[in-house]
Amino acid sequence: MPGICTGTRKVPVYGLSDRAHVSTSYVESHNQKMRQHMRRFTRLTAAHSKKAANHLHMLALYFMFYNFVKRHTSLRVSPAMASGIETRLWEMSDIVALIDARAPAPGPRGPYKQAA
Question: Which of the pair, 115 or 62, is modelled with greater confidence?
Answer without folding.
Answer: 62
